[in-house]
Amino acid sequence: MPVLAGGRLVGRVDPAREGRTLVAKQVTLDGPKAVPAVAQALAEAASWVDCTDVRVERVDAPALRQPLADALTRIVA
Fold first, then answer.
1. Global pTM?
2. N or C terminus of the chain: which is more exposed, having fewer CB within 10 Å?
3. Domain map of the chain by residue range?
4. Tens digits of per-residue pLDDT, 2-13?
5. pLDDT in tens, 16-31
């Protein structure tokens, strides 16, 4: 699933669903500035498929895993 922000591709997500959890099996980010847009896209996608939680399994840039998790916590919580 491509993620666009401001008409620009900022990331990609390979989503799946496990019960009421949206699982991001693989997340590819176009740098740290993409974190908020990808977190928002994951939260919106979760609501579209009636999921109440989001879990991220793999992030292509390990240093961005925690910022993405933090952004998701602020949005989904």
1. 0.91
2. C
3. 2-76
4. 999 989 999 999
5. 999 999 999 999 999 9
